[in-house]
TrEMBL record:
InterPro entries: CxC2_KDZ-assoc (IPR041457), KDZ (IPR040521)
Protein name: CxC2-like cysteine cluster KDZ transposase-associated domain-containing protein
Pfam families: CxC2, KDZ
Record domain CxC2-like cysteine cluster KDZ transposase-associated: where: 118-210
């Protein structure tokens, strides 16, 4: 059956008109029918980016039928062009005798010859045809474009192309365009398969002509520029920043965030309406960590760098953060706990890198990155970097009275945090906010024994079954794009990291209902299994002893610090 697709059908008449001989077929249309030249062009008037092949007597070979005989008419869709009647429009869409005209116009581009002053620069004369290179998921094609006949539209190439779902590679005298479909294809390909722009363009060229891909025009540089613009527009449309709104997005305003985390006036009432037990329920719980693999090489020409969304997603705004890094007190004491590389190796630096890693915050319950809190490291993971990240993350939770911060080296970070905030003009923290520090359950095993009762999540009231290590799983996904992003420009590097973090949050959101249901069912089952056993154990103990332990626990939960030593394991030494 596979060989049947490579042979010439016994019935060689056109499957559409049933009159002319059929010699053309389409690799992308459904079915095995053959077409004559006129019917093939007519059938592809609304699907102009299909791959057409012609029988040459021995086999099917690639045909340029649509290149020469199909003209794409860009008019005021969905309205008809008022300058010419609809009948003329239909006649000019396909002219079976225009193939000889294509050879004469092959190297012409009316936009180069008909120029006049205007906001769009060069332009074609209304109604003229021009050649346009179009990149789609099915290949790279050259098509003739007939621009609108309206005089008022002679300068509006970009608008006409966008209405036809074609994104121009330049906004002045465009000669290349990308279909909306191929830009969405590349965006999802990059997010799901970590496909680089060069690999994606190589794939499109092979789809166009697998035998001789080097003959196909290379639009790699254009894809880099257009995909960056497409990514930014996609984020702004999804965030509602459209229709020329006068207000610019707030810091992190284009990013998606966790819909289940407590946010006043979004999913929880104001603080004045809270019940006594709501303090723990509405407490934000954040995980903080650094990633030493997300490095960035020094850019050779930084003056050419242009950012489209500086500080509007997850990476912090560049200028304030750079000023903070340059002026903040350089306090990096050696760890008094175990030999934590995150702190003791904070002064490491590589001359070929301008970023030696990244630090971020995520919600501890659901694993969503917090917008506008991702920072670059200059000399490893230093406290001035993480302080800035944490303060930016806590800005999303104003008027909360308490916050849980889970950090691998929280035992050392928490010592000077308040002092660092008070000494820096770039760090802000609500005075009424109480910070409870903890260490993730996996990292806590590497700390000294004294850290266990003070920083264990098991002894933080209201933390539930949070393990504090969810950010490690988020980093593992971003580690796969290190090789693709480290040599990009600074702005492009940050925007790609933003895109992957935004997509990570999006996947968390769409899967959250099933995830929360599974966790709730597991917790409910665990409570029913362990509840009777706990009650049985309590009943078997001395009631006065249980009452004493309960009182000690209440004091430890309220005052913490040294009062948590009641959980320290005590053993008498053997004599």
């Amino acid at each position: 059956e596979l060989l049947r697709h490579e042979s010439f059908p016994s019935k060689s008449i056109c499957s559409n008109c049933q009159q002319s001989a059929g010699e053309y077929r389409c690799r992308d249309c459904f079915g095995l029918g053959l077409w004559c030249g006129a019917c093939c062009v007519s059938a592809h008037a609304h699907v102009p980016f299909h791959r057409v092949e012609m029988w040459n007597g021995k086999f099917f070979e690639r045909s340029d039928l649509l290149t020469y005989r199909l003209t794409l008419d860009l008019c005021h869709y969905p309205d008809d062009c008022p300058s010419i009647p609809p009948i003329t429009e239909a006649q000019m869409m396909f002219d079976p005798d225009s193939s000889h005209e294509a050879d004469e116009l092959l190297d012409e581009y009316p936009a180069d010859r008909h120029q006049h002053s205007g906001p769009s620069g060069s332009t074609t004369h209304p109604g003229q045809r021009s050649k346009l290179l179009i990149v789609s998921s099915t290949g790279i094609f050259t098509r003739w474009i007939r621009w609108c006949h309206c005089v008022k539209s002679s300068d509006q190439y970009v608008q006409l192309l966008l209405r036809a779902k074609l994104f121009p590679a330049s906004f002045k005298n465009p000669k290349t365009a990308f279909t909306f479909e191929v830009l969405d294809h590349f965006r999802l390909d990059a997010l799901e398969c970590n496909t680089a722009a060069m690999n994606f363009m190589s794939k499109i060229r092979r789809i166009t002509d697998e035998a001789f891909p080097s003959r196909v025009p290379d639009r790699y540089r254009e894809l880099l520029r257009v995909s960056q613009q497409w990514r930014d527009l996609h984020n702004r449309i999804r965030a509602g920043v459209v229709h020329d709104r006068p207000d610019s997005p707030v810091d992190g305003g284009l990013a998606l965030f966790c819909p289940a985390c407590p946010q006043i006036d979004i999913n929880i009432p104001p603080e004045t309406e809270w019940k006594p037990d709501d303090r723990l329920l509405y407490r934000p719980q954040l995980v903080v960590d650094g990633n030493m693999k997300l490095v960035h090489l020094i850019q050779r020409r930084p003056e050419h760098d242009v950012s489209l969304s500086d500080g509007e997603l997850f990476m912090v705004k560049w200028a304030p953060y750079a000023e903070h890094s340059a002026n903040a007190p350089q306090r990096q004491p050696k760890s008094k706990c175990s030999n934590h590389r995150a702190q003791n190796n904070g002064n490491l630096h590589w001359d070929h890198l301008d970023s030696t890693g990244k630090g971020a915050c995520a919600c501890a319950r659901h694993g969503a990155f917090v917008p506008h809190c991702v920072v670059d490291f200059q000399k490893g993971e230093r406290q001035i970097n993480m302080d800035y990240s944490i303060c930016q993350a806590l800005k999303r939770f104003p008027h909360h009275v308490q916050a849980l911060i889970v950090y691998d080296i929280c035992c050392q970070w928490s010592i000077h945090f308040r002092q660092c905030v008070s000494e820096s003009e770039f760090l802000e923290l609500y005075d009424s906010l109480e910070i409870i520090g903890a260490v993730g359950k996996w990292h806590l095993a590497a700390h000294i024994p004294e850290c266990f009762p003070k920083f264990s999540l098991n002894f933080v009231e209201g933390s539930g079954e949070v393990d504090g290590e969810i950010l490690e799983t988020l980093w593992s996904g971003l580690d796969q794009v290190v090789g693709m992003t480290q040599a990009m420009s600074i702005a492009h590097h940050q925007e790609v990291i933003d895109e992957y973090m935004n997509d990570s949050n999006w996947r968390k959101i769409i899967r959250m209902s099933n995830s929360l249901w599974a966790k709730w069912s597991r917790a409910k089952q665990g409570l029913s299994d362990t509840g009777p056993t706990f009650e049985q154990l309590s009943d078997s103990l001395d009631a006065s002893l249980v009452q004493e332990w309960t009182a000690q626990e209440r004091v430890a939960m309220e005052k913490r610090d040294e009062h948590l030593n009641i959980y320290q394991v005590r053993l008498d030494k053997c004599r």
